[in-house]
Amino acid sequence: EQDQRLKNLTIEFLDDIIYSPNLLPAEHKAASQLLRLITKEDPESSKVDLDLLLAPPMSPSKESIETLSALEIAEQMTYLDHQIFVAIRSEEFLGQAWMKTDKATKAPHIILMTR
């Protein structure tokens, strides 16, 4: 709780500094970079469990493919593609890991994206 309060106060302070007309360009750049780093979302907290996301629902839904609009289906498919794309780590691209024999372990998200 205290950490979040400190973070919010720091963000507020940096916002005030950035809009100060008396800043030198180097100071403005440093304050902007600090603000960007502090407000950047933690990748661990935004991770999505792909197994849970792609698993079939626990209870059957009243909705069927015939009752949903094409737009709703397209939005859901796009959301799933986005979640898979965001989960791709840079290591999966190294040395074209998706082309190797052990691609399922070295590049699972790229393989999932291309299916």
From TrEMBL:
Pfam families: RasGEF
Gene Ontology cellular component list: plasma membrane
Presence of the UniProt keyword Ribosomal protein in the record: no
Domain of life (superkingdom): Eukaryota
Residues annotated as domain Ras-GEF: 72-114
InterPro entries: Ras-like_GEF, Ras_GEF_dom_sf, RASGEF_cat_dom, RASGEF_cat_dom_sf
GO biological process: Ras protein signal transduction
Entry's transmembrane regions: none
Keywords tagged on the record: Guanine-nucleotide releasing factor
GO-annotated molecular function: guanyl-nucleotide exchange factor activity
Keyword Cell membrane: no
Name used for this protein in its record: Ras-GEF domain-containing protein
Biological source species: Homalodisca liturata
